[in-house]
Design goal:
The complex is a heterotrimer of chains A (about 500), B (about 120) and C (about 700). Chain A is mainly alpha-helical and about 500 residues long. Chain A has 19 helices and 2 strands. The longest helix of chain A has about 30 residues. The N and C termini of chain A lie far apart (about 75 Å). By secondary structure, chain B is mostly beta strands. Chain B has one domain: Rieske [2Fe-2S] iron-sulphur domain (Rieske Iron-sulfur Protein, 3-layer Sandwich), CATH 2.102.10. Helices cover about 5% and strands about 35% of the residues of chain B. In chain B, strands 1-10-9-4-3-2 form a 6-stranded antiparallel beta sheet, with no helix packed on it. In chain B, strand 9 and strand 10 form a beta hairpin. Chain C folds into 6 domains: about 100 residues, no CATH class; about 130 residues, Immunoglobulin-like; about 90 residues, Cytochrome c-like domain (Cytochrome Bc1 Complex, Chain D, domain 2); about 80 residues, Orthogonal Bundle (Cytochrome Bc1 Complex, Chain D, domain 2), CATH 1.10.760; about 80 residues, Cytochrome c-like domain (Cytochrome Bc1 Complex, Chain D, domain 2, Orthogonal Bundle); about 110 residues, Cytochrome c-like domain (Cytochrome Bc1 Complex, Chain D, domain 2), CATH 1.10.760.10. Chain C has 32 helices and 6 strands. In chain C, strands 1-2 form a two-stranded antiparallel ribbon. The chains are: A mainly alpha (about 500), B mainly beta (about 120), C mainly alpha (about 700). Chains in contact: A-B, A-C, B-C. At the A-C interface, helix 6 and helix 13 of A face helix 1 of C.
């Protein structure tokens, strides 16, 4: 480009410089409008823009397949961004004091311009994030994408899921209405159920639950201390932790060579997904990857706006510590835990969730087969196992909970048992044992750890969904088992 | 210093005390479990004296209500008898009985950190 | 797998679609205020009306300066904010009263004394003041239905919140429904179980803040209709046991209008949570425990009527658990002493439904309890004087017939005595004046087996006296009526040494009659006492103390009399039950044969009162029990076991004493009038003292 036309500049320096400047600007605008074309420019667009550089500049086209990832990872991250933005907007008006939390939330709903919509978006994005995170975990699992060295990232992802649940839970308290107050009371008491074990074993004076509740709530009951702590967790500690882990998660994706893909997606027989795949298999990220992400973002935005427009985030009456809700239910994502907890506080609230988390965490190290990597359900056998495990999970849940609901939890007619027995043998642990047994059975017959993990994960997933559904729709006042739509629901709530 | 920072989230001073004053013994009717709302306790008074029972369900901490045969928890349906022993439902441990004393002004003071046997009566 | 170009188009199209949808939604949000920010629409309509009016009136300044904004009243106290006037502009703008709602004015003159800027709207109307939309305040939909606006049907409950005390009788103008409700409350005996502003019973919930309780405090599991507090209250009044399982509250029998009035009153009961200058003084005072005292009739209406009946007729023990004895019957009034009633009021009946009405527990004052007792006594026939009675037309013959039915069950068919003293004893008759006889018959002897017969007509009383007098005239005319009383301390020692063995340590009777009984000492003059002490009663265990062995002098006798008079003036420490003179084993047999059907196998009460109740046993002396057995309670299911009847067998005097001895076995605590129990009961055991002979 003749940017420096030395001939004319000496005579009319100003005019020449202006000409150069305008032509450069015109070029840049043209360039911007058209976008980078050359290989180098497209590559640089990604690697040299701060907000884009965490993406790879080259990706395998398989990663774009919508039916493969369903965009869930991007969706989850986008939800987090939405939550942060709407959360900051809400912080302009919300006051975390027990006298004013409720009224400030009510004012946001009724008086603040667009406050209702901001709060609704925040609420539905929060619920949505829990759903997308879980679905993302399912996608990652079923495509076997924890293999091929991606075990660490799987752990980070589990951590992110826990953080998501915690963020949702801490945020749940902030409106300070009847729903929040009692949901958090239940949640804190579930956490404090850890004391049941030493108590049943005879160490009455050891009370870790009390200390845990003190740490969580700043007191033994939900009050101003709890509100401040939850607010602190919700707006600072947990989001920072989450942002850090998200960054780590993205970094690991890059380190691990991008998204997984099946062997036959490779045009040459390179190692699956490892860095150093043949360059000719990859395409430049710009612009297609960004269009893909933009599609996810824009559809998600539309969905959130629709939800915010159509449904209002609930705001019941102000929290009244003297008037317990009946039934007092935890947030929906904890209702499965609460259902199991209604049989045994320790078994359902501490033991089984811990075992479940542990089980999830060790999956990549139990299953090292790398079998069917990048393919949903690995292969036909895997698909069969998945279907059977789903059925097995359903049957196991019904078989264990049916009698437990119908006949009572055993204490009615076995009152003289040593307290450790119901602690360790209760519907939650029995269900966990059955699921573990099923996984073991599958391993025995197929001799494949992948199939065993498929069995374990699917059965657990179905069981969790069913138990949550029971807690959500079939439990009425006094935690009675009621079919939805019957008049017996007509009670305090 | 490090230890102190680790201790930071555990408050030394809390808005709720472990010693609760619940009024004078003569203010409570006889032969009945009277609920003391602010502190979630039941006071049982008879001619022998006064006993203090916790109203916090040992399952998940909801407040139990007195019923015909004892107490019942509305959250998950745990039932307790008049001694606080669990009869049915998910609660495993009996309701706690607390130590009570008379303060200098004659008012009953309950120590929520000291549990006593159910037979211990404060003579009034 | 598509090509890169295909993917690019696909995703670009999806992005555009999503973006378009988002824009549409954003636009919809911006434009559609219909269901959310409709206050702006309402205010625009208002401005149009203002402008229309201004056009005709020629003054458009107000209209044009009208700004569309959220208007609110901030009440300062605990962050209360009412935004109702955002739409209900007629309440704050003058001259627009006639516009249709919500723009129109507030009906009535209420806003003159209750300006919106000081009271807001939700104080009276309830609802969620923070919301500035249409649906939520009316239905409470946004707050989950927990804070709905008050139906105008019960709006007077709002007046009561600041204006209407419960115990003061000052009326609130313009709140007739509320006043009616309060009247029903005050005469319904509600505070017998419930508590209101530190007064009342503790069996039912405290009603002091009932009107402020939100929906979450009510359980609708058993309420059939819509989920609102007035519905719950109305159903609860009608069928308490169904709505609140386990409740012992009797149903409130009243018309629907009356029930609505009553629930208006209950809804008006709020705590004092506003600054003091919002309230009328009697209400403020009442909330601090300073209230006007009430008389006996009001007290009965406030506390007793629900169980004991509006005319004291009691409640049948068949209807749920709330059986209560009849208080107005002759059988009760004649036999129960003032001490018995007082003791029952103060101690209650322990685990039974009758609560203790001690001032510390009930909030009542001692003077009010006394007035209540006084009022209860008006069901008792007054005692007429001897001067009145002697004018009636009676005869000894009629008296003889009367004696056989009325007095013989205790005094024996030949007046030879038994439970009661021997009335044919000539020594007795020579010492007893006619006044003495009449006084004893009419007033009775409190806490002994001798009831008060003041309900008999005058002829009958005279006839009895004449019959008893018979042929033995009074012949102690020369003795001084009131001798100089001696040293009562010495008298006390002598009493303890000589008299207490037969007459009881506290003179409550035993082998001998109750001689420290105030009724006896009122009737007997010193001559009677001195004569009896010195000469005794022939053929009875009372020998003359001036003779064999002891030789009491006149001075000794007057010391004893002095002591007796002094003791009669002191209120007793407790009600002394008296010696047990029957055989409990026999009593048990009789009890299981005749009494268990109504009183329960262990006296725990089934269709009749509980007899094993410690408070009852401390209140009822043996005499009370014997008299109740003998006379029964006419008008109730308790029959008379001493008077012959074709329906049941007659219990002889021994059998009645045996029954009483058996009942006494149940007593483990003796409660004094300070409410202190001691276990040092003289348990009769199963070996009884031999019954006395006369």
């Amino acid at each position: 480009m003749g940017l420096h036309d030395s001939g004319a500049s000496s005579r009319f320096p100003f005019r020449e410089r202006m000409k150069v400047l305008t032509s450069t600007v015109a070029e840049r605008i043209a360039l911007w409008r058209r976008g980078p074309v050359s290989y180098r420019d497209r590559s640089r667009r990604v690697s040299r823009t701060f907000f884009f550089h965490f993406q790879a500049s080259r990706i395998h086209p398989f990663s774009l397949t919508p039916s493969y990832t369903l965009g869930l990872g991007v969706l989850s991250a986008f939800m987090f961004v939405v939550l942060t933005v709407t959360g900051v907007l809400l912080m302009v008006y919300y006051v975390p004091s027990v006298e004013r939390a409720y009224s400030s939330t009510a004012d946001i709903m009724y008086v603040v311009p667009a406050g209702r919509y901001v709060r609704n978006i925040h609420r539905w994005a929060a619920h949505g994030m829990v759903v997308t995170v879980v679905l993302h975990m399912c996608r990652v699992f079923f495509t076997g994408s924890y293999g091929a060295g991606r075990g660490i990232n799987w752990l980070i992802g589990i951590g992110l899921m826990m953080l998501t649940l915690l963020l949702s839970f801490t945020g749940y308290l902030l409106p300070w209405d009847q729903l929040s107050y009692w949901a958090v009371t239940i949640g804190a008491n579930i956490a404090a159920a850890i004391s049941d074990l030493p108590a049943a074993a005879g160490f009455e004076s050891l009370d870790p639950g009390r200390a845990l509740r003190l740490l969580l709530l700043g007191s033994q009951v939900v009050g101003q201390d709890a509100l401040i702590r939850f607010y602190l967790l919700h707006i600072v500690l947990l989001p920072l932790l989450m942002a850090a882990l998200i960054g780590l998660h993205f970094w690991r994706i890059r380190k691990d060579g991008g998204l997984t893909r099946p062997r036959n997606a490779e045009r040459s027989s390179g190692v699956v997904g490892a860095p150093g795949s043949q360059l000719r298999d990859l395409i430049l990220s710009w612009p297609v990857l960004f269009w893909a992400e933009a599609a996810v973002i824009s559809l998600a935005t539309a969905a959130l706006l629709l939800a915010a427009y159509a449904l209002d985030a609930p705001l019941l009456s102000i929290a009244d510590p003297t008037a317990p809700e009946n039934p007092a239910k935890a947030p929906w994502y904890f209702l499965g835990v609460q259902e199991l907890v209604s049989y045994s506080a320790f078994g359902g609230g501490v033991l089984v969730p811990l075992l479940l988390s542990l089980g999830l965490a060790i999956i990549p190290w139990v299953d090292r087969e790398d079998r069917g990597l990048g393919i949903w359900f690995s292969d036909p056998e895997g698909a069969r196992i998945t279907v059977r495990s789903a059925v097995a999970g359903m049957l196991a849940t019904v078989a264990v909970l049916g009698p437990a609901i119908g006949l009572g939890t055993g204490r009615t007619w076995l009152r003289a048992m040593h307290p450790l027995i119901p602690l360790l043998i209760n519907p939650a642990t029995i269900l966990a044992a059955i699921v573990a047994g099923w996984a073991g059975l599958v391993y025995r017959t197929t001799r494949s750890t992948r199939c065993a993990m498929l069995a374990f994960f699917t059965a657990t997933l179905i069981a969790v969904v069913l138990v949550t559904a029971i807690g959500l729709w079939f439990r009425g006042p006094d935690w009675q088992f009621l079919l939805p739509g019957t008049t017996a629901w007509n009670s305090a709530r | 210093m490090l230890a102190a920072m680790l201790r930071l989230p555990f408050p030394r001073v809390r808005s709720q005390s472990d010693l609760v004053k619940i009024g004078r013994a003569v203010d409570y009717p006889l032969y009945r479990y009277t609920f003391v709302p602010g502190s979630n306790l039941f006071v049982y008074r008879d001619r022998k004296g006064v006993r203090i029972l916790s109203a916090i369900c040992t399952h998940l901490g909801c407040v139990v209500r007195a019923s015909e045969s004892g107490f019942h928890c509305p959250c998950h349906g745990s039932l307790f008898d008049h001694h606080g022993d669990p009869l049915s439902g998910p609660a495993g441990r009996p309701l706690e009985w607390y130590h009570a004393e008379r303060a200098l002004d004659g008012v009953l003071v309950v120590d929520l950190t000291r549990r006593v046997s159910r037979h211990r009566v404060l003579k009034v | 797998m598509r090509t890169e170009h295909e993917y690019r188009s696909l995703f670009r199209n999806l992005t555009l679609a999503g973006g378009l949808l988002s824009c549409v939604l954003l636009l919809a949000m911006a434009i559609d205020r219909g269901s959310h920010d409709d206050w702006q629409g309402v205010q625009r309509a208002f401005r149009d009306s203002l402008l229309a009016r201004a056009a005709s009136a020629g003054d458009s300044v107000a209209a044009e300066s009208f700004v569309t904004e959220i208007r609110q009243v901030s009440l300062g106290a605990d962050d209360r904010v009412d935004r109702c006037i955002t739409c209900h502009l007629g309440t704050v703008f003058p001259g627009v009263q006639d516009l249709p709602q919500p723009l129109g004015g507030h009906p009535g003159e209420h806003l003159v004394n209750h300006p919106v800027d000081r009271f807001g709207c939700t104080l009276c109307h309830g609802g969620n003041g923070r919301d500035a939309t249409v649906q939520a305040p009316c239905t409470g939909a946004d707050s989950g239905g927990d804070d709905p606006i008050e139906s105008l049907h019960y709006i007077q409950s709002a007046c009561g919140r600041c204006h209407t005390p419960a115990f003061d009788t000052s009326e609130t103008a313009g709140a007739a429904v509320l006043e009616r409700g309060r009247a029903i409350f005050r005469s319904g005996g509600c505070l017998g179980c419930h508590r209101l502003r530190m007064v009342g019973g503790t069996l039912g919930p405290d009603l002091t803040e009932q009107g402020a309780k939100s929906l979450s405090h009510y359980s609708f599991r058993h309420v059939q209709r819509n989920r609102s507090i007035p519905t719950w209250l109305r159903e609860h009044f009608r069928e308490p046991a169904r709505v609140s399982p386990g409740s012992v509250m009797p149903p409130v029998r009243a018309s629907t209008d009356d029930l609505d009035a009553l629930l208006t009153f209950v809804l008006s009961l709020h705590p004092i949570d506003l600054p003091a200058d919002y309230y009328c003084l009697p209400l403020l005072a009442e909330s601090r425990g300073s209230r006007p005292g009430f008389d006996g009739e009001t007290g009965f209406g406030l506390f007793c009527r629900a169980c004991h009946g509006s005319r004291g007729e009691g409640t049948s023990y068949d209807s749920s658990r709330t059986g209560a004895p009849a208080l107005s019957g002759v059988g009760f009034q004649a036999v129960a002493s003032d001490e018995f009633i007082q003791f029952t009021l103060m101690e209650g009946r322990g685990p039974r439904l009758m609560a203790s009405w001690r001032p510390v527990l009930s909030g009542l004052r001692s003077a009010e309890l006394d007035r209540l007792l006084h009022w209860l006594r008006r069901w008792k026939a007054p005692v007429r004087s001897w001067e009145q009675v002697r004018m009636a037309a009676g005869s000894a013959g009629k008296g003889s017939e009367l004696f056989d039915t009325t007095c013989a069950p205790c005094h024996g068919a030949q007046r030879e005595g038994g439970i009661g003293p021997r009335l044919s004893n000539p020594d007795f008759l020579r010492l007893a004046t006619d006044q003495f006889l009449h006084a004893t018959i009419a007033t009775g002897r409190r806490n002994t087996a001798m009831p008060s017969w003041s309900h008999l007509p005058e002829e009958e009383l005279l006839s009895l006296v004449l019959f008893l007098r018979g042929n033995t005239p009074y012949s102690y005319p020369n003795a001084a009526r009131r001798s100089t009383l001696g040293d009562s301390a010495r008298g006390g020692r002598m009493f303890a040494a000589y008299c207490s063995r037969c007459h009881g340590t506290h003179g409550e009777g035993g082998i001998g009659p109750a001689i420290l009984n105030p009724d006896f000492l009122d009737a007997a003059d010193d001559a009677f006492l001195a004569g009896t002490i010195k000469q005794g009663r022939a053929h009875t265990a009372m020998f003359g103390w001036s003779q064999a062995g002891v030789r009491l002098s006149d001075g000794d006798a007057s010391s004893i009399i002095g002591y007796m008079r002094a003791m009669a003036e002191q209120p007793p420490e407790r009600i002394y039950s008296g010696a047990v003179l029957g055989r409990p084993q026999h009593g048990r047999e009789i009890f299981s044969e005749l009494c268990t059907e109504c009183h329960g196998v262990n006296g725990e009460g089934k269709k009749g009162p509980a007899l094993n109740n410690q408070e009852f046993l401390s209140a009822a002396s043996n005499g009370f029990l014997v008299a109740t057995l003998t006379l029964g309670r006419p008008g109730t299911a308790m029959p008379s076991w001493g008077q012959p009847s074709p329906e049941r067998r007659l219990l002889s005097q021994e059998e009645r004493l045996d029954l009483v001895a058996f009942i006494r076995v149940w007593q483990t605590d003796v409660i004094d009038h300070r409410g202190r129990a001691s276990a040092d009961v003289a348990r009769p055991g199963l070996t009884a003292i031999s019954s006395r002979t006369r």
